[in-house]
Amino acid sequence: AQSVTQPDIHITVSEGASLELRCNYSYGATPYLFWYVQSPGQGLQLLLKYFSGDTLVQGIKGFEAEFKRSQSSFNLRKPSVHWSDAAEYFCAVEGAGKSTFGDGTTLTVKP
Amino acid sequence: DTAVSQTPKYLVTQMGNDKSIKCEQNLGHDTMYWYKQDSKKFLKIMFSYNNKELIINETVPNRFSPKSPDKAHLNLHINSLELGDSAVYFCASSPYRDTGELFFGEGSRLTVL
Question: For residue A34, which residues of chain B lie inside 8 Å, CB to CB?
Fold first, then answer.
């Protein structure tokens, strides 16, 4: 069965600093990978996805993620964080017709 | 024009009652889902439907009964509510059955007293 681990429960960064959120997955075949963001009281919104091809994928709001098969990782990055990026971030892997989510990372942005 | 809409947004009810949540998507997607998010924000799939056919039932108690009258609608009915059912329930849709990104509604927060 597929699974996703997000090792960091909570991350705090200063506004303008760079960000990296970690995601490790377990899946037997080529994974379809996603990052979603959830603002308070809202549903989840897709930031970016990896299906195949270029291992560095660009998403919305200036986010990017890099797929590393050898490390079973799909880490999310942003070069300069804005206060509006404060939210919950979920990594997900698609397999067998369903998406399995990690437990999420809460991002706090300090002024 | 909301892509995936759920009603109601909030439900507060007593143990033992029955409640329903409705979901509609106007994206033309064939696949719809119900996810449950608990108080620790863990998200777990409950059901998925593809073109009105149930394809995933993730060992959810029989008290939960989804219904899809057409591919744009997926409703969730819950009988005999228990305290542990308190959660946020998200409806989502996807353009593809196996490889699709998910489009989420804003969630329905259920509180069982």
Answer: 101-102
Nearest CA in chain B to A48: B101
pLDDT digits (tens, 9 = 90+) for A54-83: 899 999 999 999 999 999 999 999 999 999
Three-state secondary structure readout of B30-98 = CEEEEEEECCCCCEEEEEEEECCEEEEECCCCCCEEEEEEECCEEEEEECCCCHHHCEEEEEEEECCCC
Phi first, then psi: what are they for A60, rounded to 5°? -85, 165
> What's the CA gap between B47 and A29, in Å, rounded?
23
- The C-alpha angle with vertex A34 and arms to A86 and B93, in degrees rounded to 5, equals 95
